[in-house]
Design goal:
single chain; alpha/beta; 7-stranded parallel β-sheet; 3-stranded antiparallel β-sheet
């Protein structure tokens, strides 16, 4: 989650048994990325020593779009740290697959269409993250039921469902569809450990799915954002300026972002699952609550027909 997932959130997620994902772009430089990975590894090693429980893997998200001028530097850092899982997004994973896999990483390619799923599978991705309608931030447009079943008809690798996953019931439903994992983002924004501002977190609690607007105005890609944050920034949600083609290198440039008008830094993302955000919790509380919901949903599921 851009500008949301940091050291504290990733560490807490892994320590509580769920994959802790974060965009490498959340670090100002590749050198800072190297530092983040070292700090997270040290914290998780300490937690394992104190609890005797092995943490879940962390999962860096590497933007592979051709305009990402930091791609090679970030890739070099990841290869050196040998993460168990890496997600590639905003482009084909082909350019980074071999090096990441040789470093021992499971590579999951973020895809938003059946064609892109086919290309990523053909390239040799170990798994696919299906970005569906309702995902927060960069979003998809396909119905999750149709998308999962279409991809599962030709792909037997790891499938991760992203978009609208708001509780343990949704995770159980994703599993029933044929997915191996589910990607939950919005509720983790509203945790004590996230880097989101207090105002962002409170807005999540106060909003519903009706407050989500999908627009290309802010990133050049279809993005789900909170309409109240657009209004608070002094913009008209029904008359937003057009944004040109995506330029990842510019968006990753912290100094360039800080020189833009203030409203562009105050547009906050969320997905359709925002309707389920009722309070601000710790990661530990959220994981326990979600686990209970999942186990209850699975216990009520009808027996499989074989």
């Amino acid at each position: 989650m851009f500008r949301v997932s940091g050291i504290d959130l990733v560490t807490a997620a892994c320590a509580n048994g769920v994959l802790g994902a974060f965009p490498t772009a959340n670090c100002r430089t590749s050198e800072e990325l190297d530092g983040w990975l070292s700090i997270i590894a040290e914290r998780l090693k300490k937690i394992e020593g104190e609890t005797g429980r092995k943490p879940a893997p962390l999962c860096p998200n590497l933007i592979v779009h051709r305009t990402n001028t930091r791609l090679r530097e970030d890739l070099t850092v990841l290869v050196a740290h040998k993460p168990q899982i890496v997600v590639t997004s905003v482009g084909s994973p082909t350019a980074v697959l071999r090096e990441l896999q040789e470093a021992g990483a499971i590579v999951l390619a973020d895809v938003a269409s059946i064609r892109h799923a086919e290309l990523a599978a053909r390239a040799g991705a170990d798994g696919l993250v299906l970005l569906t309608s309702g995902a927060g931030g960069q979003t998809g447009w396909l119905n999750p039921f149709a998308f999962v079943r279409a991809v599962r008809s030709f792909y037997s690798g790891i499938l991760v469902l992203a978009g609208g996953i708001g509780d343990g019931v949704a995770i159980a439903a994703a599993e029933s569809l044929g997915c191996d994992l589910a990607y939950m983002g919005t509720k983790f924004i509203a945790t004590h450990e996230s880097m989101a501002s207090d105002n962002h977190k409170r807005m999540l609690v106060d909003s519903t799915a009706d407050d989500i607007l999908a627009t290309t105005a802010f990133t050049g890609l279809q993005t789900s954002v909170l309409t109240p944050s657009i209004v608070a920034a002094g913009l008209d949600p029904s008359n937003l300026p057009l944004r040109g083609p995506i330029d990842v290198s510019d968006d990753l440039d912290v100094l360039a972002r800080e020189k833009r008008p203030k409203p562009w830094r105050d547009i906050w993302s969320a997905g359709h699952s925002v309707s389920g955000v009722a309070e601000i919790l710790s990661v530990s509380e959220l994981v326990m609550k979600t686990t209970l919901e999942y186990e209850t949903a699975r216990s009520r599921a009808p027996p499989s027909q074989s």
